[in-house]
Automatic annotation (TrEMBL):
Coiled coil start-end: none
GO MF term list: nucleic acid binding
InterPro entries: Epigenetic_reg_gene_expr, Nucleotide-bd_a/b_plait_sf, RBD_domain_sf
Protein name per the record: RRM domain-containing protein
Organism this protein belongs to: Kalanchoe fedtschenkoi (Lavender scallops)
SUPFAM superfamilies xref list: RNA-binding domain, RBD (SSF54928)
Length: 211
């Protein structure tokens, strides 16, 4: 026995429901979905990073009920208008997305209706759920959907493993780059402090200022 749900269309539409759903569709058009956002990123951090594209109206973190809390999250960003959301998608997919001064492997794409956990029901459509017996015509369909869901879960787990490996490589690369830059600045600071820069300037007849 399997549990099956099916959408049923109805001809009668409520004007209030239609207006609510239309407003929701406009919200979707001006929203952006960011994938692989660091778990340490907060709403204020994301707003600060995205305010360069326009006014960020709302930030919603999509809950991850299956994976650990240490992996990257998906976030829905609502901008003020669709043009700003398109600018966010274009820029993030073309250039590194900087969060708190560090580049992050974030992917941006247009939001879709199914991404919103709190969304109004589509006017004229109602979902009906029922148990189906093995002799029911919908039993095979429900069984295929169940197997497909298991397949998608296995694929998602594999992709998650690859994603974590890539993030570890990126973190190691950023750490090496940070240490390298720190050593360079430390060397320059030492040269300025012990007067070596002035001696080099005198040796090669260069005008070296105090700064």
């Amino acid at each position: 026995m399997l549990y099956s749900c099916r959408g049923v269309s109805k001809r009668i539409m409520d004007k209030g429901q239609q207006a609510e759903y239309t407003a929701f569709e406009e919200k979707v058009k001006r929203s952006v979905c960011l994938d692989y956002v660091s778990p340490q990123a907060t709403e204020s951090v994301l707003k600060e990073a995205l305010n360069q594209f326009g006014n960020v109206k709302n930030v919603h973190f999509i809950p991850n009920y299956l994976g650990p809390n240490t992996i990257g999250r998906s976030v829905l960003i609502e901008m003020e208008d669709p043009k700003q959301s398109k600018d966010v998608i274009f820029t993030i997919n073309k250039f590194p997305f900087m969060i708190s001064g560090m580049p992050r492997p974030v992917r941006a794409r247009a939001a879709e209706i199914e991404m919103f956990d709190h969304r109004p029901a589509k006017p004229g459509r109602k979902i009906k759920c029922r148990w189906v017996e093995p002799n029911d015509p919908d039993f095979k369909v429900a069984k295929r959907l169940k197997l497909l869901a298991k397949k998608h879960a296995a694929e998602a787990a594999t992709l998650l493993k690859l994603q974590l490996e890539e993030e570890q490589k990126l973190a190691a690369q950023q750490s090496r780059s940070l240490r390298s830059h720190y050593k360079k600045f430390e060397t320059l600071d030492g040269v300025m402090a012990d007067g070596a820069i002035k001696r080099l300037g005198n040796r090669y007849n260069l005008n070296v200022g105090e700064e």
